[in-house]
């Protein structure tokens, strides 16, 4: 196998499953090359991706010749992406009754989803997340993209109980928007053992829903390492969950449009 | 920029957004190399990916120097993957009341989702799909993965009407499983103009839900080019929708487990 072929194949293998360990020892055997040769190839790939701001290739300690790709978004692309999103979401045509902002098109756009998945996974990479949890329905596309980049499963909290989830644990909470008692339910088989959960959702006001998920996950003895949301309101500034991270902030919504801004890292707690 | 760096970067750019056109003219300018040089690089990448069964790089007619990656799953991996899934889903511990099979763990597994997304996109690649449509909740993860590989948006049909979707069109249908009248609703802004929709869902029995989506999409003047489901029942053999494709067939469900088999291409209509 020629060096150029190896570089293309190695890049493909690493990028196909972000966050997933790849064994160089195994590839060296399959391709009939020395492991040290593959290590040099990985060094080239790491350097090229780092220079492009597209993430890095980590060497795993304790795994014989294990490496994995961790995706990122270059700073300039990130800034342009968030500024563009903020502008798109500010238009008066997006304002819905009750001060909601129409976002379903954005939450269904494959480029947006992949970029958000990269940013959320980068933000919580060090937390050793082993499951992404979301509440149906609008956060599921974001959760899917994030789980792909973290290489972990997704668990979906339901608003009702479904036979298809098997035995489930249900809890009740008071919703932030209409003060009514709501139910949420999660299948008992949905969580891994020793779960370290990242909650992903599309929108957060005070954080009552995320708080309810935290409480539900206590029933699973899961640890919640953080909450990542696409958009949060600037008020109340104090949310009902810790370690929350949002990409966009909405300050005010009126008939003239929404005041949406990229969230600065300082905004995030 | 050295050839090895170009090959790594080009592979990364192509694989990052499957199905999305990449302009070689633009890259040639940005990197200060001849477009013919990049065309040779793309030829190397195409050959290497094809040999590995990982899909191909298409040259786009009518776009100056446009290319795009179309992902696939190597035949041996596909067969092993489906056989393994069929076995995993056949266990008696998965049988739920009503003859349902517990699949939520599989539908939340990032490797499964990516592989299914590749297979669905390959199957319907020639149909020029421009939107993937699913019904909440369990099909959303599959739809997200499929839409990524087709580089098209996702539209989510809701079981209720939500203020966050804006003005919506609702229809009613009789569900296949409990013969009750159900409502489904899709936001008016959710569909592109001249929509060519692929319906994606987790499970199909007779196809009443998919049929209801087809009828709902008529209200949007959308053309449905096919329906892709993860698992279908072998009976009734005649489904209520045309051009349906399933990866797995379930023949019988009893307390001893489910008889799940990879669907042969001949099973699909």
From TrEMBL, chains A, B:
InterPro entries: PRTase-like, PRTase_dom, Pur/Pyrimidine_PRTase, PuR_N, PurR_Bsub, WH-like_DNA-bd_sf, WH_DNA-bd_sf
Subunit text: Homodimer.
Name of this chain's protein: Pur operon repressor
Keywords: DNA-binding, Transcription, Transcription regulation
Domain Phosphoribosyltransferase: 113-250
Species assigned in the record: Alicyclobacillus fodiniaquatilis
A matching Pfam family: Pribosyltran
Domain Bacterial purine repressor N-terminal per the UniProt entry, residue ranges: 2-70
Family affiliation: Belongs to the purine/pyrimidine phosphoribosyltransferase family. PurR subfamily.
